[in-house]
Write a structure and sequence with these properties.
339 residues; alpha/beta; Rossmann fold; 7-stranded mixed β-sheet
């Protein structure tokens, strides 16, 4: 996408920081802390303005060539050879078989169909954090909404999973707005249930639980987009992602802190709702330790991209999700071969 198009989107962006702050003040909250239902609905029209995959992917896009046509017609999978019937497409005639048998035969192929899209949005307590900008949980919710509305406008069936520390909320992919609206309502409800003083213990294992659920319900030929900080990513997660990527188009969208948002010398206090931990950004050892942890997690995800051949598109918490998706999906795809 050109810089001019992105600049136009910024000017027309319906949920600018000022508008979000005004709405949040009216609700007694703060902008970027919780998602707004009307904002999630309004993203439907904003997403339509952007020509990004899978419907209109450029040749160098991350998802180029990974999406079947929504128009049903001749496919690539051969089924049978049968006699010609009035109305059959003459392009399907097998001239060799016709000459050999003396009767006109046509080759029958499987029709191309739309593909289910699974959105996996993480709303665990680990996502309820940001040094500046929007919380990770808000970025994940808005990005999932943008992806869902865009997939729906492309004619796909859309559903998903919402990950929380208490369990999983599942919406099976369906045609039309009903399934997506149900998913967004579950997403909004889990987002608004997040509290720093929550008595629910963090559940890193819920990431693997969501991947296992996907293996049962999305065995093949689906587009799976995971919006998470990937807290709990381990060897078991790698095996599950490997199995999902084998027969599906997997896209990992880690929600990361913008490194430019760290103020040198700042003192922060983080909490899990029960205990508090001061973090001194003026301490060199603290800065190096945090940077090392962030680098290790990002390297694990980049390693998965090379190993699985899937797309990895990091999203920062300081810029609207739609703009980042519009830019990021128009990048060179990974070169690793699909399994």
């Amino acid at each position: 996408m050109s810089e001019g198009a992105l600049a136009g989107l910024r000017r027309r962006w319906p949920w600018r920081r000022a508008a979000a702050a005004e709405a949040a003040d009216a609700q007694g909250g703060a902008a970027g802390v919780y998602v707004d239902w009307q904002a999630l609905l309004g993203l439907e029209f904003a997403a339509r303005r952007v020509r990004w995959p899978p419907q209109q992917a450029s040749a160098r896009s991350l998802l180029a060539g990974r999406h079947r046509s929504r128009v049903r017609g001749r496919g690539l999978d051969f089924i049978e050879l049968r006699h010609y019937l009035p109305g059959d497409d003459t392009r399907s005639i097998d001239w060799r078989a016709s000459a050999r048998t003396g009767h006109t035969h046509v080759r029958v192929y499987a029709e191309e169909r739309d593909r289910p899209t699974w959105l996996v949005a993480d709303q665990r307590l680990s996502m309820f954090f940001a040094r500046s900008g929007s919380l990770r949980s808000v970025v994940a919710a808005e990005a999932a909404a943008v992806w869902g509305w865009r997939a729906l406008s492309g004619g796909d069936r859309v559903g998903g999973l919402v990950i929380s520390d208490e369990g999983l909320d599942e919406t099976l992919p369906g045609r039309g707005r009903r399934s997506l609206l149900q998913f967004l309502e579950q997403l909004r409800r889990r987002n608004h249930a997040l509290r720093a003083e929550s008595a629910v213990p963090p559940a890193p294992a819920q990431l693997d639980a969501a991947l296992q659920r996907l293996l049962r319900h999305a065995p093949r030929q689906a587009v799976i987009a995971v919006f998470s900080d990937f807290d709990g990513l381990g060897e078991g997660s790698r095996s599950l992602l490997l199995e999902l990527a084998r027969h599906n188009d997997l896209v990992l969208l880690p929600i990361w802190e913008d490194p430019r948002s760290t103020t040198p010398g700042a003192r922060l206090v983080v909490s899990d709702g029960r205990a508090q931990l001061p973090i001194d950004h003026g301490d060199r050892k603290v800065i190096e330790g945090l940077a090392r942890l962030a680098h290790e997690r990002s390297e694990r995800l980049r390693g998965l991209r090379s190993e699985l051949g899937c797309a990895v598109l990091p999203l920062l918490n300081t810029e609207p999700a739609l703009l980042q998706l519009a830019r990021g999906l128009d990048q060179t795809p990974p070169t690793a071969a699909r399994l």
